[in-house]
């Protein structure tokens, strides 16, 4: 369905215009400030909700305004939409060609027809990549947030890289001791307790032997002292006759005691040699070294097993991240396929619109224009009308692409151009269509 007739009175700069389009491209021409944009706004305001209408839609000095659209296919009028304005409010009516009311209420009827009449292919072509991404996502009505999926995938990709790096590091660390463990002899630990018991027993016996030796040395010295004292007493007895008897008696007693000691010493026999523990200490050192080496190997083997287990867990985490990323990519593909984008190869990148996998702004001018116009057409499937503001900025190639696509897909393009020649389209002058 297209616009077969547009009538607008007192809309913005317009006084009164009546336009009956002829052809696929409807050019609204004239100087700046004459009402060209008001013509295109009239189409949008006639059908869209009151929320999109500017605050002062009525021409200055007037208190009423009206827009009437006759819609149909071919030359047959099927529907008539009319919006009337009074200060502070507007009213939309929708009737069939014969004047009978439509099945749906007026605004519901309008909503069923319009898609994105405010979408301007030229404006889209001039948007920044991020703005194009947001606009296409809005028009396509994607059920998922493509950018959020990309952000999550980027985060998981970085996380997976770290996890894989850590897993490889742990596997490498686990294999460092492989050759050592393979070459190490398999033997049991030595029981050092028995050796320690022998050393402790020898030390106790040597201590007792040292005590006995010290006692014997003291006893020997005491005996020598007794003999010396006996000799002294004898000399003292000879010198001191007056105490000779006493001294003789004492000497006899000492001699008797000394003789008894001599007998004891003679009967005691020689002392045994001290026990040599140097071999036992060497055996203990060897056993300790062996046990330490075995403990080190056991610890290395346990560490190796732990590292491989940790690496396996990290691999599982990496696989989970990969699965989550693949699931998001699948969700993205399904969402984009479900959106039924109007151009084959059109897609969404990270905050950009892509064409055949490359950013849209890297495509040729003709390809970009075909994408922009195709998006506009896809956004308006029922009322097959497209508006282009500032059409004067388009070169002849772009206009040729627009005309070709409008004819090929049966669309009506309303284009505003600055042109004072009066040689093209409907010329708007002082708020009306210029005659001639």
Q: What is the number of E strands?
A: 13
| CATH homology group of the domain at 1-119 and 380-436 | P-loop containing nucleotide triphosphate hydrolases
Order of the strands making up the biggest sheet:
2-1-4-5-6
CATH domain class of the domain at 1-119 and 380-436: Alpha Beta
Element string (H = helix, E = strand): EEEHEEEHHHHHHHHEEEHEHEEE
In short:
The chain has 436 residues and is an alpha+beta fold.
Outline the structure in words:
This protein has 11 helices and 13 strands. By secondary structure, it is of the alpha+beta class. Among the domains are: 1-119 and 380-436, 3-Layer(aba) Sandwich (Rossmann fold), CATH 3.40.50.300; 192-292. A 5-stranded antiparallel beta sheet has the order 2-1-4-5-6, with helices on one face. The protein has a 5-stranded mixed beta sheet with strand order 10-11-3-12-13, sandwiched between helices. A 3-stranded antiparallel beta sheet has the order 7-8-9. The radius of gyration is 57 Å and the shape is rod-shaped.
């Amino acid at each position: 369905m297209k616009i077969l007739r547009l009538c607008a009175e007192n809309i913005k700069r317009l006084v009164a215009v009546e336009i009956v389009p002829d052809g696929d491209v409807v050019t609204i021409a004239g100087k700046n400030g004459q009402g060209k944009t008001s013509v295109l706004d009239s189409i949008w305001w006639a059908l869209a909700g009151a929320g999109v209408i500017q605050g002062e839609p009525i021409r200055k000095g007037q208190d009423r305004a009206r827009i009437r659209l006759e819609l149909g296919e071919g030359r047959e009028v099927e529907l008539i939409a009319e919006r009337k304005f009074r200060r502070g409010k507007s009213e939309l009516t929708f009737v069939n060609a014969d004047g009978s009311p439509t099945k749906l209420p007026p605004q519901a009827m309008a909503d069923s027809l319009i898609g994105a009449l405010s979408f301007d292919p030229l404006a889209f072509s001039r948007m920044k990549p991020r703005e194009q991404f947001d606009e296409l996502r809005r028009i396509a009505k994607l059920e998922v947030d493509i950018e959020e999926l990309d952000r999550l995938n980027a985060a998981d990709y970085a996380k997976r890289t770290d996890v894989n790096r850590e897993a490889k590091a742990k596997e490498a660390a686990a294999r460092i001791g492989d050759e050592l463990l393979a070459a190490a002899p398999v033997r049991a630990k030595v029981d050092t307790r028995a050796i320690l018991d022998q050393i402790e027993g020898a030390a106790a016996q040597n201590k007792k032997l040292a005590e006995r030796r010290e006692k014997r040395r003291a006893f020997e010295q005491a005996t020598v002292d007794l003999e010396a004292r006996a000799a002294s007493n004898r000399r003292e007895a000879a010198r001191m006759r007056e105490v000779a008897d006493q001294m003789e008696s004492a000497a006899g007693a000492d001699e008797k005691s000394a003789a008894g000691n001599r007998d004891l010493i003679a009967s005691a026999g020689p002392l045994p040699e001290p026990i040599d523990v140097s071999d036992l200490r060497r055996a203990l050192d060897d056993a300790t070294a062996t046990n330490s080496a075995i403990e080190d190997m056991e610890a290395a083997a346990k560490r190796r097993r732990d590292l491989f287990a940790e690496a396996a867990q990290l691999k599982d985490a990496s696989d989970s991240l990969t699965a989550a990323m693949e699931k998001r990519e699948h969700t993205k593909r399904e969402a984009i396929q479900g959106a039924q984008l109007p151009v084959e190869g059109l897609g969404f990148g990270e905050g950009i619109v892509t064409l055949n996998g490359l950013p849209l702004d890297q495509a040729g001018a003709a390809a970009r224009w075909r994408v922009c116009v195709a998006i506009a057409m896809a956004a308006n499937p029922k009322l097959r009308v497209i508006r282009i503001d500032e059409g004067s900025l388009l070169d002849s190639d772009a206009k040729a692409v627009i005309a070709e696509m409008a004819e090929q897909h049966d669309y009506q393009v309303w284009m505003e151009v600055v042109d004072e020649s009066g040689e093209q389209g409907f010329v708007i002058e002082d708020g009306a269509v210029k005659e001639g």
